[in-house]
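Before drawing any conclusions, I looked closely at one protein, both as residues and as discrete backbone shape codes, quoted below without any editing:
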Amino acid sequence: MVSQHGKLVLADVFGMPLEHVLSFVPVESVVAAISSSKFLRIVACSDAVWGSRCDKLWCGKVYVPLHFREIRGMSRLAAYWGSLTDSRRCSIMAHSMAFVAIKANGRAVTWGYVAYGGISSAVATLLKKGVVRVCGTNGAFAAIKANGSVVTWGDADRGGNSSAV
């Protein structure tokens, strides 16, 4: 890590950028490192580390659960949409200092620092069921529900308040 004009810049390690080096480290070691260092967490969560691997894995592909693929006469688009709204899916999303997990029953659970959207108590009743997707900024999250509604929380200046929309 090198400071240039007051900003942190990733230094090369053995002629390779740190993001590239992290892509060869076992996942368990990356998890241990990011839990102890905010800098390594930022590096490890960047698209530079995992983007190319995800692109290779998912290029031209969409994950659709088997039970949707087995329905005769269902178009690929309908199967994909059905899989997005299927309550058996679960995922986790993180940024900076907050996390949100979508449980198998469609409930979103949050934790982390309040200033980064880690506490969702103001909208907790809206996140109890039907959440199908979550995205976030550095300070706020937005959840898309199965009924098409959007729920936001976190820092209002960073997207946590969508009441004007």
Residues 88-158 form one domain. The helical segments are 18-22, 27-36, 38-44, 47-58, 66-69, 76-85. Residues 117 and 154 are 4 Å apart (CA to CA).
